[in-house]
Structure formats: C-alpha cells, structure tokens
Prior knowledge:
By secondary structure, the protein is α+β, with helices and mostly antiparallel strands. It has 2 helices and 5 strands. A 5-stranded mixed β-sheet has the order 1-2-3-4-5.
Amino acid sequence: MDVSVKDNPAQHRFELLTADGEVAGFATYRERDGVTVVVHSEVDLSHRGEGLGNKLAQGTLDLLQGRGAKVYPACPFFAHYVTEHHDWDAILVD
C-alpha cells in the first residue's frame, strides 16, 4: 500500500496517510526538554496486518531525523522497532 507520513503539529501526532488521504494510523508525541517523546501509536483496525506500523515508525523517525531532533521512544511499539532497526540510533536518547 502506498502511504506517506506527515506531521500534524496541531494534534501533536504524525499521521500515516493513504494515497487517498485517509488517516490509517498515527503516532502521538510530546516535546520535552528538547526531546521528542513518541508516546503512543496505533494503526486503524481495517489496516492491521499490512505492515503499516513499520511504515509509520520508519516515516516518523525519518522526519524527526531530518529535523535533527532527539527522540525518546516511550511507545512500546516504537521502542521495540528501534531495537531491531538501527538506522536511527544517533537520534535516540535514554
């Protein structure tokens, strides 16, 4: 499925959008002491099992890395994702 990730700062979340603009998932975040804390993520039930959680994590982390952000993955899914994908190790904080 063709998707993209966009920041929605008004709602403090990164949204996973389908080609027709449907929000198929999101990751909420908070800014704290110069660190972006990813606190929760979810994918719409109608899209579960399509690998969209991984696409959401990858797209979110890519956007944050491009901004030079420091990231703390408090969300259990994101925390697990970064243990298996080390492309973003340089932006992670404890």
